[in-house]
Amino acid sequence: MGREPDLGKAAHQVGQERTLDHAEHPLAQKAEEGQLLIADLADAFAKIEATTRHHAMSDILAELFRKGREDARILPYLLEGRLGPPYSAPDIGTDEHRLAQAIAAATGEPEAEVWRLYKERGDLGLVAEALMPPKGQATTVQEAYSLMLRIARTGSYEEKVALFSDLLRRVGGREARYLVRMAQGRLRLGVGDATIMDGLSVAAVGDRSLRPAIERAYSFCSDLGLVAETLFSAGPDALDRIRTAPGRPVLSALAERLPSPEAITKKLGKVIVEPKYDGLRLQAHKDSDKVWLFTRRLEDVTHALPEVADAVREQVVPRQAVLDGEAVGFDPKTGRFLSFQVTVRRRRKHGVEEMEILYPLRYYVFDLLYQDGEDLTHLPLVERSARLRAAVRESLEGPIFLTPQMVTDDPSELKRFFDEMERRGLEGALVKRPDAPYHAGARRFNWVKLKRGYQEGLAGETFDVVVVGYYRGKGKRAKLGIGSLLTAVYDPRNDRFRTVSRVGSGLTEEEWVQFREMLDAIETAAKPRRVDSELSPDVWVEPRYVIEVVAGSITRSPRHTCGKIAPKDRGYSLRFPRMSRFRFDRRPEDATTEEEVIQLYHQQTTSESKAA
Fold first, then answer.
1. Residues 536, 421 share a domain
2. Of these residues, 276, 286, 432, 451, which one is catalytic?
3. Is 371:391 a contact under the CB 8 Å cutoff?
4. What is the separation of C-alpha 176 from the centre of its chain, rounded to a whole number of angstroms?
5. What is the gyration radius of the CA atoms in the chain, in angstroms?
6. Which CATH number fits the domain that encloses residue 351?
7. Which residues pair with 603 in a beta bridge?
8. For the chain, how many structural domains are there in total?
9. CB atoms within 10 A of CB 173
10. Domain limits at 372?
11. For 531-588, what is each residue's pLDDT tens digit?
12. Within 10 Å of residue 48's Cβ, how many Cβ atoms?
């Protein structure tokens, strides 16, 4: 199927930008066979916008990938409105004011007219489409992508406007609609990773049977562009050669829930028990002196945590390594850990030195995924733990520490360990099967978390839910402009967010106002395409922000879509939910799943039956 890609290329190389010859404009090229025109991409985007069915979307994507195999590396990025994989995509950096200037320059219309139409239609993409001719020059996706990269990389706002207006002059109205939305960060096609993976499978083998292999490859590289390029240039068998490598974050392994130490040891037998820190999940990647630090959200925070990056160079013995762990704020005066909300302040891009002094970190490492050219994820945990202990030089000053472990099959010992962790101000315990491999991106019973709420029925149980809309509020809340949030859990099989609760408590008045301003920036005119809801909030928003809520119980509900199959079915909802904190470290796809809610409901009813 063509040449085999070099899977060892630098992780942050997302495409080769063509050298721009001033004598011949780069967009005056002719599309080669297997390359898409930007008009073809816009046609596919329009078809996707015309449907809400997951399978229909993936079929449209399959046809797009079949036509544009030469563009396979960049199509997944563009479908999600980015210019690269999530951990290294450059920001186009073009706000609505400069986009309005670019549209005016490209069309010859006064800028005031652009703003008038924007106010009328509420979408700069639609404004560009209305002002541009319906057809433009034959411009390839590769060429448009290269110029968008150049726009992102230039530091001059004047040059950004000039380059973007130059691009707009050469495309038709429909293409302009989507290019402007992409530049504004508002593409919002409703296409997520799962839909793209289904589309890749259908394009390659005619059905969705290849989805597990595609998903496994993606879990080890977090780069759907690399996965697509590998699939179409080297075939499905080559997907297995995409493995862990420094510089490409691995999707984090996730833990299931069980209600008690007795239930855990009964299901898992002999286990390795570790403290469950309430910090920022952090992967540390080392390749000689080069270090990357990635959050669970696939965000590169190396610049924000310089002391951790320096410690990786000094305390990690192998030349190459990928470690998984938890960064936790620590007060050396009191010897106490800081709260999660304090720890995540370290993600700031500015004032890094001041934050390092105010909120020092400890990085507790608990897994070693890669070492000097060898992928270790397939090895049993007990072997990875042994290698980890040989790979890290511990120091009393830290800041890198090995996570302590205990091995037991005795529920009473597990309970004592858990109680001790709680006394130290930690969340609880994380219990792991010694023989388990590292299941990247998967939630398995190889890891089980034990928290206080699990042992007290469901009272105090926490859920990570995605905000999909809000209600404006009444009475005292009317002045705030927001009264409650509509939240959802994630259905990974269908790449949908299904509503599970309205949350109206847990924030101060000032916090409500701040959150409303954040949500207004991602407001959508209609229900987001990946959201299943029978409720209609006053304001719909893109499913971007994850919050943690504490709930009293789970109940059946005719109003919420979580767990609802047929129209007459009852769904599931959280009873008495209260927001406890923002989860800026979570992607929307990392939220509590629909299946988790259903499992917990059955655990709850079983416990209630026994109590009765």
1. no
2. 276
3. yes
4. 27
5. 25
6. 3.30.470.30
7. none
8. 3
9. 19
10. 254-454
11. 999 999 999 999 999 999 999 889 999 999 999 988 889 999 999 999 999 998 899 9
12. 21
